[in-house]
Amino acid sequence: MTPTPGRTVLLGPQRFLLTAGTVVQQVAPDGPVAVVNAGWQEREADDGELQEVLGGRGSMLRLFARAAEVVEADPALAEAVVVLRTAQHELSALYERRLAHALDALDDLRRAAARPDVRSSGVADAVRALRDLDTWFLDAVGQLYGELVASGVLERSDVLRRHQEEVERLLADAPVLAVAGGHVGELVRLLRLFRVRPRPEQHVVAWSGGAMAMTERVVLFQDRVGDQDPVGFAGAQVWDRGLRRAPGLVVLPHARRRLRLDDPERVATLVRRFADATCVLLDDGARVEVAGDGALPPGTRVLTPEGAVGVVGEAA
Amino acid sequence: MSRPRKLAVNRLRERVAAGADPVASVDRFLARRTVPVVEGRFATFVWRGEADEVMVRHRVVGLPDPLRLKRMPRTDLWWVSIELPEGSRVEYQYETVRGGHREEYLQDPLNPRVAHGPFGASSVCAATGYVVPDWTRPDPEARPGEVVGMRLRSRALRREQELAVYLPARFRRTRRYPLLVVHDGYDYLDYAAARTVLDNLVHRDEVESLVVAFVPPGDRLVEYANHAPHARFVARELVPFLGEQLPLVDAPRARTLLGSSFGGIASLSTAVRYPGEFGALVLQSASMVFTDIGDDHGGGPAFDPVVRFVNAYRARPRRVVERIHQTCGVYEPLITPNRSMVQTFRDVGTQVRYAEARDGHNWENWRDRLRDALTWVYPGEQKFVYE
């Protein structure tokens, strides 16, 4: 008999509005809750409040601490991880530089004096160039992971295998997996290293960065750079592949704080660039239950191709 | 449209001229205001006391220096109003003449706001819109890094060189850190709040956890003015020494030199002498004085080697680092050469981030630009964090 597919609920940031406990209770009233809060990094063990919210049911997977133990015990693996991280950051720096030029080109074309249809054609192709860059980056990252796997260093690591097996057992016992936010780069790396994959029938409740990790590709975004905010790349960039539990979505937590939603052109570019997915806003208090076919419930706030914020189920 | 209100000092002048008690009026005027009096885009400097002449000394390019104050009839109040663009910050001192005796470098006795530097303190006039950045103030939530003293014997400089090394909070020997070498290092610690800034920016994930070597100069005007032994010390002695003592990323992209004024020249000239050894430079109001024709650069003898170096570089510019973060105050005489050098650096393929501030050649200007510089040179992981 085919098991009933598990529910997938994505939530907004939980720092000031703790709804995760209620939602977990609704989707899985009994049994342990497998918890990943590796995005908190050094604060991973500081989970008292989270345990309280989960009614003491949390079965903490402790991926960050496990990773520290693995790299301590296995120097060859530690070195391979450093090499991978360094290469990914170097690759990312090149990607950012290419993106910056591509975004400048797009802006330039938008302002160009030309026949509207000619200009539109140029703009559309410039957006395609952004997509190509995203694809190039993700493929190149995939190749780096491929090199790591092919090196055999993961397979040879007894300490890693022991931790992977422990994590697998904890996951197998839990009807629900809860994934907290934090450093999403670290989170997806550790989910992959310890082979954390929710079973099809296992419920998933993930919030903020944790929700991003449940999508096909993790998209980092920060429009607000400049006088009041730290310098950095202004715009969106893909970083890695996620667990694909919520396919067809680009998840944008803290959108109000990080995106310039009052700039329709900028928003429209984001939507067109990720046109194969729906850009979902996950601000404080947001709750989005993703159906098995990827459908979104009414009331979900999304970005529209016109560069506005729309609501699923409401007429445009 | 409402008529602009008269400046407070003009209203005071009118009241006193109309017969109001001059002493009580001035007392009340000063009691109700901070000094200098900033109203919209104007700032009024006031000084109270007996004198024959009172002047503001400020070194702001474009304004008369000295800026003479007028005495208000029937009072002992001296004043002058100037236009001060939004966001400006001006450091100044008073100069007075009384009975033929001139007194210089006086702080404004009516203004408690003071900036410190190696040559003493100056009073500060902050225009409308200028706010001391919150990240320059101690944040109790920011875990502090540690500053440790080190010494090394320098063959290049023929002396024992001391330095202060900043290790970030949660420093671990199993990690690798990028390096920032700061010229005039102790002044950055004492006058530019460098330690607090680093603690805050690292805590907020705006800047990568990094190791910073704060290095003081010996004979500054010699060693920082394109001096081969200094460059050799930095590139061939200091960097390898720190690499042996600390877990540093062993790559040019993870090595940055920072300096202001002559320290900017020390940074640039070291990179020119050792191209490819460093990934980035942070040049704050660098003394990049040059001549296009003739040799009258106006900087005095101390600038002669600097001008020779900058002229030679401009004659044969080359890409010696990948990136340069360059800033200058628009009220400094150095603003023109700094603007010119941006294009020179860009023409050879250097990535340049250039910013100007309505400020002068001083430590608080350089402090206020540190966030922009450090987040650009060594960006933190904030873009990854979605709590």
From TrEMBL, chain A:
Kindly give the InterPro entries that the UniProt entry links to this protein.
Class_I_gatase-like
Specify the protein name: Peptidase S51-like protein
Question: What species is given as this protein's source?
Answer: Lapillicoccus jejuensis
From TrEMBL, chain B:
Ranges for domain Enterochelin esterase N-terminal: 44-94
Q: Give UniProt keywords alphabetically.
A: Cytoplasm, Hydrolase
**Family the entry assigns:** Belongs to the Fes family.
Report the InterPro entries cross-referenced here: AB_hydrolase_fold (IPR029058), Enterochelin_esterase_N (IPR021764), Esterase-like (IPR000801), Ig-like_fold (IPR013783), Ig_E-set (IPR014756), Mycobacterial_A85_antigen (IPR050583)
Please identify the protein, giving its name as recorded.
Enterochelin esterase family protein
Q: Name one GO biological process term.
A: carbohydrate metabolic process
Its subcellular locations are: Cytoplasm
Query: What parts of the sequence cross the membrane?
Result: none
- Keyword Hydrolase set for record: yes
Query: By its UniProt entry, which Pfam families does this protein fall under?
Result: Enterochelin_N, Esterase
